[in-house]
Amino acid sequence: MALNLKKKICFVLCLMPVLAWSDVSVKVTDTSGQPLNNAVVFLKSPDIIALSQPLTGAEIAQKNRQFIPGVQVVTVGTAIDFPNLDDVRHHVYSFSPAKIFELKLYAQKPEAPVIFEETGIIELGCNIHDSMLGWVLVNDSSVFATTGSDGQVTFDGYQPGQYTIEVWHKNFPYGAPFESFDIQASNSNNVHTLRLETEGVSF
């Protein structure tokens, strides 16, 4: 009896579809085909986007007259605090279409965080200190990584299928959007080489 039950279980398992998992690997290059270091790469699919939620506790501080971190990656709807840790006042602003805002001359911490409701690239500045520059990358995917000197990133444990890859680099000109690519990931773990079209970008 036990043997027959084992055979039935085995038969049922054999009929079930095998859920294959894969690593999605990409290599980002500049327009000349050279590997691009420090590019931010987002992995996107309907399932990934559906799971995305606003982040909590996000902040961009001002310290030593710099934005810390210089690049902050968040999901849509995230609220970011802008604490001033310097002993001078700052005046933080953005004219980027995805989020126009202004935190007028202040010390310590503004009363309310800034909420980023739209996807896009927001460039930050300070009206008092022209050398201060930072970015907020707002995406509807929470899955991202930054390329190394070989231009590569790998996202582990995703099913084979179609994905969209979005790429950004701090040397993109002002107003340039994420560059977008569609790839077909398979369980062979091939590296997908993505050549940017934006001119003048290199590490």
What this model shows, in words?
The strands form five sheets. Strands 6-12-11-8-9 form a five-stranded mixed sheet, with no helix packed on it. Strands 13-2-15-16 form a four-stranded antiparallel sheet. It is mostly beta strands. The longest helix is centred in the first third of the chain and has 14 residues. The protein starts with a helix and ends in an 8-residue tail after the last strand. About 7% of the residues have low confidence. It is 10% helix and 43% strand. The protein has two helices and 17 strands.
What's the topology here?
Layout lengths: L1 H14 L6 E8 L10 E5 L1 H6 L6 E2 L1 E3 L2 E3 L2 E5 L2 E4 L8 E5 L6 E6 L7 E3 L3 E7 L6 E7 L4 E3 L5 E7 L2 E8 L10 E7 L5 E5 L8
Parallel strand pairs: 1-17, 3-7, 6-12
Antiparallel strand pairs: 1-14, 2-13, 2-15, 4-5, 7-10, 8-9, 8-11, 11-12, 15-16
Give descriptors for this structure.
4-stranded antiparallel sheet, 43% strand, mainly beta, 203 residues, 17 strands
Outline of the structure:
With 203 residues, this protein is mainly β. Helices cover 10% and strands 43% of the residues. It has helices spanning 2-15, 46-51, and strands spanning 22-29, 40-44, 58-59, 61-63, 66-68, 71-75, 78-81, 90-94, 101-106, 114-116, 120-126, 133-139, 144-146, 152-158, 161-168, 179-185, 191-195.
